[in-house]
Amino acid sequence: MKCIEQAKANNVIVVGATNKYDLVDPAIRRRFDLKKFVGTPNLEQRKQQVVNNLSKKSKGAALINDEKSLEKVARDLNGFSYHSINTIANAASLNALNRGRADISYEDFARAIEKTNEERIDDSMYKSKAVKKKTSIGFTSESI
User: Fold this and answer.
1) What's this model's pTM, rounded to 2 decimal places?
2) pLDDT at position 23 over 90
3) What is the pLDDT of residues 34-84, one digit of tens each?
4) pLDDT digits over 94-115, tens only?
């Protein structure tokens, strides 16, 4: 906490990020003037994240081109962070490899989700603690 105060005293902008807001000590949270809730990706963002991840893999093309299965995977990934989605996608590709599959399938993702140590995030818990007023970064003519 002392470092945060020293940095602010020297006109250094301090930025913090966490996916466990509720575990951060309230005394530390008070040191930050602005708080912005980002949240987990929505359905379209999850689909795009899966596509981005699978496009780097030679066995990912079949799932990318199967809109129905891709949609199903994206729905099953609800509540996971971007990082968790990447971890699960990597596990799904390992599942396909270990089972000798020609392509990564929905079943590979379902198994990866079932076996993952990644946690789903309940956004509602954080949204209620987020700052209600709209914040912005930068200066206005009134603040100078």
Assistant:
1) 0.70
2) no
3) 888 778 899 999 999 999 999 988 888 889 999 999 999 999 999 998 899
4) 999 998 888 999 999 999 999 9
Q: Where in the chain is the domain with CATH 1.10.8.60?
A: 43-115
Alpha helix ranges (H) inside 55-105 = 61-65, 67-76, 82-98
Q: How far is CA 119 from the centre of its chain?
A: 11
d(CA 65, CA 75): 17
Query: What is the Cα 1 distance to its own chain's centre?
Result: 26
Cβ partners under 8 Å of residue 109, min gap 6: 63, 73, 76, 77, 88, 89, 92
Residues 6+ apart with CB under 8 A from 95: 101, 104, 108, 111, 112
| Structure tokens given for 26 | 């309230």
Output the CATH code of domain 43-115: 1.10.8.60
